[in-house]
Amino acid sequence: MKKIFIIHLLFASLVLVSCEDFFDLKPHSSTEESEILKDEDDAQTLLYGMYSTFKSGSSYGKTLTVLTDIMTDATLATSDFSNQMGNMYAWNIQPGIGEIGGLWGNHYSGIYLTNKIINNIDGIEGEKANLERIKGEALVGRALFHYNLVKFFAKAYDLNTAATDLGVPYMTENVISQPTRDAVSTVYAAIKSDLEAAVELLPNNPQSDTEFFTRHFANGLLARISLDMRDYDGAINYSEDVINNSGCRLLGGNAFINMWTHDSGNEIIWKVGYTDTDKGDAPGYNFLNRNYETSLPYPDYIPANWLLNLYNQVTDIRFYTYFKESATAFGWSGYLVNKFPYNPELPPFRAGLNMPKPMRLAEMYLIRAEAYAMKDMDKDAAIALNSLLDYRLYPNPGVIEKGDDLKELIAEERIKELIYEGFYYHDLKRSGLGFERVPQENTSAANDLRIATGDFRWIWPIPTSELNGNSEIEQNEGYEN
Fold first, then answer.
1. b/e for 180-192, b at 16 or more Cβ within 10 A?
2. φ/ψ of residue 385, rounded to 5
3. What sign for the dihedral angle of Cα 293, 296, 301, 302?
4. DSSP class per residue in 67-85
5. What is this structure's pTM?
6. What pLDDT digit, counting tens, does each position of 304-347 carry?
7. DSSP letter at 204?
8. Residue 319 phi/psi, 5° resolution?
9. CA separation for the pair 247, 240 (Å, rounded)
10. Is the torsion defined by CA of 99, 105, 106, 108 positive or negative?
11. Residue 16: which pLDDT band, with cuts at 50, 70 and 90?
């Protein structure tokens, strides 16, 4: 991976130099490891650099939150849309597209920083507990970066083929090399190993609404990947640990609405921390597309009618929190996505600027419900789902479905709860489902699109930048090198 690691060095240097003369810049090849990481403060600075990568539009700022769900049938381009993210929306997916290379480069740059910490922190000066915490957070970061990459650039985990399906290179050393792709099973095993090691290092204290990785986020990620791997016992156990021990609580009423407006609340397990001086990308910008709070929106994308119709529009708090009926500057009115309305504590005004929340407690209840349902333990699945719906439906009539009907209900609740947080696209992929996008009023005829289950484009291509720098890496089927 010769070229990507040149990018890593440049990225890391920019991060470090921006931190108040952290070290005097030298040619990249002559900067010694001992000069970069000498003590606890240096390690913490590198860790802040890792967290900053998640703010990018190539990470949770856009690609990992809204882009993937925009690519599905849940969203339609308006008749006047500006063609932002247009290639990905139309599934014109090619190795040279910016979103493809952006995600790959952003994540391997973050991996570079995590490896710098993990491989050099032992034995440096500092308080033991803090050094263990920093290393634990870096291990979680390395696991999360690789997990995101393998979900996009490889097939969904399949028990029958994971040992031979091509994944991504799992990088644990910062070396100039040309690695081949590890098998999907190897990548998932390494992710689990890093997370399990992190759990042993991170403090076991309740923490909610945090901008940093915690033991509970690590267990939540283990629950998520266990569900991917059809390890339903693991998914149940890890999600139960988070539900019972994280200190997070489900929110209802105004507290739930406030979580999306002001990006705060103890339902949040981990959020990407923006500040008024260090703001990331605005994930919801293309749903509103306006420059002033008082101006009418110019939406690029609007929710599909079938998605709106999934909700009870009277009793479901998610409907009137996630969507808003509004006039537009195009001259028509309709429902717009309002999940990222703008946080007034992050001035100046920018439409759609809210902190991404990659893990909330609601997901843990949904994982628990799905895992129980897949084990045909319908009563336990209904209990888990009702625990969530008690905070979403007023009143909650209660779950009475069983068997396949219950499984379908849980899948629908995942859509209703997690839409535009980056889950729906991957839920379709891991479930082996396609979709058909149907135009509706005020949308473009180009919305007429059908993506089948086996379409090769569900797996993104290895980007051109990596192919040019690494002759050993193999491209995914269906794409030209």
1. ebbbbbbbbebbb
2. -70, -40
3. positive
4. IHHHTSTTEEEBTT---TT
5. 0.93
6. 999 999 999 999 999 999 999 999 999 999 999 999 999 999 98
7. -
8. -60, -50
9. 12
10. positive
11. very low
